[in-house]
Specification:
globular, 16% strand, alpha/beta, TIM Barrel, 9 helices
Length: 209
């Protein structure tokens, strides 16, 4: 369960223009785990994009995760699946993909986090700390949830989501956050490699590495 302990910068991206080039730039800047999260495209388009990223990331040694869909993970050769509270449970995903797959789950409250601890997942995400357009209608949790989640030491990383930037990383780290999910700071950047580098440096500085 500790296989992601040293992977601290997690990119979550929709399908976008020049997707493979964008993701490769982010990895070169310091991203070390990638999730494809696409809610609006047809399944065929998602599968095609997922296969493209799987081919790109596997030789680079970067774990590749699909949001919600075990079927697309299987078809694309992805390493695993991330599920939300309203999707299949981590245990159900594990039964589909097997013991070697990566399974992660989202948590937006202390109650959800405590429930997820009992699930067979490799990592848990916490947040969004700040309200974000990627989760419309969901208020920010603040850093108290980060602090509470960090107090549970079971060998599994907690990836903090929502408004993660080089400027917010120090506060999150002071609350106990050590792993970070980034969406808009990278997906809207004109220089994704440079942006990822800034995030990586901020993480290392905040964690004293």
């Amino acid at each position: 369960m500790n296989r992601f302990g040293d992977r601290r910068l997690y990119l979550c991206t929709p399908i976008q223009k020049d997707l493979a080039a964008f993701v490769e730039s982010c990895v070169k800047g310091g991203v070390d785990i990638v999730q494809l999260r696409e809610k609006n495209a047809p399944d065929r388009e998602i599968v095609a994009a997922a296969r493209q990223l799987s081919r790109l990331l596997r030789p680079m040694g970067i774990p590749f995760i699909i949001n919600d869909r075990p079927d697309i993970a299987i078809l694309s050769g992805a390493d695993g699946v991330h599920v939300g509270q309203d999707d299949l449970s981590p245990g159900e995903v594990r039964s589909i993909l097997g013991s070697g797959a990566i399974v992660g789950t989202s948590n937006h409250s202390a109650t959800e986090h405590l429930r997820s601890i009992r699930e067979p997942c490799d990592y848990l995400s916490i947040g969004p700390v700040a309200e974000t357009p990627t989760k419309p209608g969901r208020p920010g949790t603040g850093v108290d949830l980060v602090r509470e989640a960090a107090s549970v030491r079971d060998g599994r990383p907690r990836y903090v989501t929502g408004g993660v930037t080089p400027q917010t990383i120090p506060e999150i780290a002071r609350a106990g956050g050590t792993h970070f999910v980034v969406v808009r700071y990278l997906t809207t950047s004109n220089d994704p490699r440079g942006a990822a580098t800034k995030l990586r440096r901020a993480i290392e500085a905040a964690l004293g590495r």
